[in-house]
Design brief:
Layout (H helix, E strand, L loop, with lengths): L3 H21 L4 H6 L1 H29 L7 H10 L5 H7 L2 H10 L6 H10 L1 H17 L10
Length: 149
């Protein structure tokens, strides 16, 4: 059975990171590229937000299905297979773990323009993920306190 408290705590933390990232969205591209403190903060917040998605996906697969993902991107795809998130959404966010891996393991080569583009274009995906998880918890009669990202 899924650990609802773990999921809700991570969704709460996801909302906090998304709120922080939304504030950083107001930076122009030039401001972002010239502000190392903002770059580092945004990279870290994106890394953790993506890790939260990975953690929730992995947990739900392990506790509610027989699906074994081959990697973190596949874990997101398999969430769609078990009916937690829509397939089109899963395909859209499946590349997130690869971007997280770049931030974690290839930090010397991070393309700051790509980080800025993700900041500007992809934040809504985190909130959408939270909505789908909350809806799934509701369907399972597991969600006592809905949290939004």
């Amino acid at each position: 059975m899924a650990d609802v408290n773990m999921i809700l705590e991570r969704l709460k933390r996801l909302a906090e990171y998304v709120e922080f990232l939304n504030r950083k969205r107001s930076l122009s591209r030039d401001e972002f590229l010239q502000d190392q403190q903002s770059q580092l903060a945004v990279e870290r917040a994106l890394q953790v937000a993506i890790q939260i998605i990975i953690d929730i996906a992995s947990h739900l697969l392990a506790t509610t299905s027989n699906e074994t993902p081959k990697d973190y991107s596949d874990a997101i795809i398999k969430l769609a297979r078990i009916g937690v998130i829509p397939t089109t959404f899963a395909k859209r966010i499946a590349p997130m773990p690869r971007f997280r891996n770049v931030l974690v393991h290839q930090y010397i080569e991070v393309d700051l323009s790509r980080v800025y583009r993700n900041l500007q274009d992809d934040l809504d995906d985190f909130a959408e993920f939270a909505r789908y998880i909350n809806a799934w918890l509701d369907q399972q009669n597991l969600n006592s306190t809905e949290l939004q990202a």
